Amino acid sequence: MLQSTKKIFDLEEIERLIISHNITISHFVPSQFKLFLDEVKIDNLKSLNKVMFSGEMFDPRLVKKEIRNERTFLNYYG
């Protein structure tokens, strides 16, 4: 699933797409994910069970409070 190109990184649209299409895997640059967490309650995204990161240095503190048994965070940077 790709986000519309009308708005780049529209957080509400990303949230809506994840929920409406039961998306299970997503990819973010860590700084984008931080913005996403600031605006979206990730616990509402029940289908999202894997989040991948790449493109810049990843700080594990970013996801420390979000880690739960059903969700996996993968870092592919460096």
Question: How would you describe this structure to a colleague?
Answer:
The chain is of the alpha/beta class and 78 residues long. It is 31% helix and 15% strand. The protein has a 3-stranded parallel beta sheet with strand order 1-2-3. Strand 2 (50-53), helix 3 (61-64) and strand 3 form a beta-alpha-beta unit. The longest helix is centred in the N-terminal third of the chain and has 10 residues, at 11-20. The mean pLDDT is 87.
How would you briefly describe this protein structure?
The chain has 78 residues and is of the alpha/beta class. The chain is built from 3 helices and 3 strands, in the order αβαβαβ.
Structure summary, number of beta strands: 3
Question: What is the strand arrangement across the widest sheet?
Answer: 1-2-3
* Largest sheet report: 3 strands, parallel
**β content, as a range?**
15-25%
Low-pLDDT runs: none
SS summary, helix count: 3
Give the overall average pLDDT.
Answer: 87
Rg from alpha-carbon coordinates: 12 Å
What class, by secondary structure content?
alpha/beta
Label the overall shape: globular
What's the helical proportion of residues?
Answer: 25-40%
Oligomeric composition of the shown chains:
single chain
Strand and helix order: HEHEHE
How far apart the termini lie comes to 26 Å
Explain the layout of strands and helices:
Blueprint lengths: L10 H10 L4 E4 L1 H10 L10 E4 L7 H4 L7 E4 L3
Parallel strand pairs: 1-2, 2-3
